[in-house]
Design goal:
Layout (H helix, E strand, L loop, with lengths): L8 H33 L9 H7 L4 H28 L2 H21 L3 H18 L2 H12 L6 H29 L3 H17 L15 H16 L4 H27 L7 H20 L1 H7 L2 H17 L8 H25 L6 H30 L1 H21 L16
Subcellular location: Membrane
Membrane topology: Multi-pass membrane protein
InterPro entries: MFS, MFS_DHA3_Transporter, MFS_dom, MFS_trans_sf, Tet-R_TetA/multi-R_MdtG-like
Length: about 425
């Protein structure tokens, strides 16, 4: 008679647990690598150091540049909600695919535009493409990780993905500055081609199950969005925290708009070919900061970060009129500070938002930042023409410091603590 081996039930259960954990790790690993490759090809580093110089080369004034910047953000604001709904309703992967294609068309259009109106149209197209990605990319990543049972890795994965994008941006920025000095349109045409590759990468993304009930009426969906927004902003400290990060974004955006005229102009005096290298240093430092966001959160804490880092940036901007030499280190520090702050902002909102409207809610927050960018850029262009870009940055940094300080005084500490994720349907 053959003997029968009896396997304890506990052993079977233990083996099943190991197999399940290994499956989760494999799925998470594939998600991470696809997201990392996506982040690499998403870069627009070739045009980052020269797009404002292109506008100047077409004969635009500081005021014109500020108005175009405000128009860019006005389009972002107007398109945020519709594209956020597309991300939730039609599929986040499809939304990211449209983002790559439309952004490529807008950037390619900049290469061909010669006057104010065509330049405005190209910038508007570029902005529409960006809105298809804004909020949706973060929502896709968070939901994909949650579906794989690894939502707790979101901060690290997003931070590393941003670091890869910033590193790619640093490398391509060097190339972009050199290319621009030889052929103005070259960086823009090549960026459009890179975004076409990005679209192919998106096609390899897995489809994420949508927890929203697509059979419901539009009025029901709008009512649920309002309910989820109310749920988010009624939580202690969220209003003040979002307001703070919105002001910070406005300051960062106006500074980004005038980096190139400042460093190429008489204030710093860099040659155009060297601007790409300067932008590379911006992005390398920002990449390092983004990659360590998780460690900063664990060791330094979100609240201490927002009490110190953005105010140091504002202080450095306020010193620019009397010490222009601070411009380069200030801009380097700005990118690092914003990358970490943006990830913290995304984490706070994600943790307090139901999955059914996560992309839409993130788009609303991004829209609020766009409103600040419109105001800061429009006012910044006029002030730069009147008093110069350095004094303009000093004035707007003071405005930020006053507003952010007031918001922090009424924001309870609890908002800076990680909250339990709400994935209710």
């Amino acid at each position: 008679m053959n003997s029968v081996t009896i396997i304890p039930i506990t052993h079977i259960g233990f083996s099943a647990a190991i197999a399940k954990r290994e499956k989760v790790q494999m799925e998470t690993g594939r998600l991470k690598w696809r997201y990392y490759v996506y982040s690499l090809t998403e870069t627009q580093g070739l045009i980052a150091p020269v797009w404002v110089l292109l506008l100047q080369a077409r004969g635009l004034s500081y005021t014109d540049i500020g108005v175009l910047g405000a128009l860019y953000w006005a389009v972002l604001v107007l398109a945020e909600i519709p594209t956020g709904y597309l991300g939730d309703r039609l599929g986040r992967r499809q939304s990211l695919l449209v983002a790559a294609v439309v952004t490529a068309l807008g950037i390619g259009g900049l290469a061909l535009a010669q006057t104010l109106l065509p330049l405005a149209l190209a910038l508007a197209t570029w902005a529409v493409g960006i809105t298809f990605r804004s909020g949706t990319a973060d929502a896709w990543l968070y939901s994909a990780l949650a579906q794989a049972g690894a939502s707790e890795t979101y901060t690290d994965v997003r931070g590393r993905g941003r670091a890869l994008k910033l590193a790619a941006t640093a490398v391509t920025a060097v190339v972009g500055g050199v290319l621009y000095s030889r052929l103005i349109i070259a960086p823009f045409v090549l960026t459009a081609g890179l975004l076409a590759i990005n679209a192919v990468i998106v096609l390899s993304f897995p489809t994420i199950s949508d927890t929203a009930d697509q059979s419901q009426s539009e009025s029901w969906r709008l009512a649920m969005t309002r309910e989820d927004l109310k749920h988010l902003f009624d939580q202690p400290g969220v209003r003040g925290f979002v307001g703070y990060t919105v002001l910070l974004f406005g300051l960062v955006e106006v500074a980004r708009t005038f980096i190139q005229p400042i460093v190429v102009g008489s204030q710093v005096g860099l040659p155009v070919a060297a601007v790409g290298g300067l932008y590379a240093s911006f992005n390398l430092v920002a990449a390092g900061a983004s990659a360590t966001t998780g460690r900063i959160e664990r060791t330094f804490g979100r609240r201490r970060w927002f009490l110190v880092a953005p105010f140091l940036l504002a202080g450095s901007f306020m010193l620019l009129p009397v010490s222009p030499v601070l411009a380069v280190p200030s801009f380097i520090g700005m990118e690092a500070i914003w990358q970490v702050s943006k990830t913290f902002q995304s984490s706070v909102v994600n943790e307090r938002t139901p999955d059914r409207r996560r992309a839409t809610i993130l788009s609303v927050v991004s829209m609020a930042g766009g409103v600040a960018a419109i105001s800061f850029r429009a006012i910044g262009g006029v002030l730069a023409d009147l008093r110069g870009p350095l004094l303009m940055l000093a004035v707007l940094a003071f405005v930020f410091a006053v507003g952010a300080g007031a918001l922090l005084t009424v924001t309870p500490e609890v908002v800076f603590r990680p909250a339990e994720t709400d994935t209710s349907e």
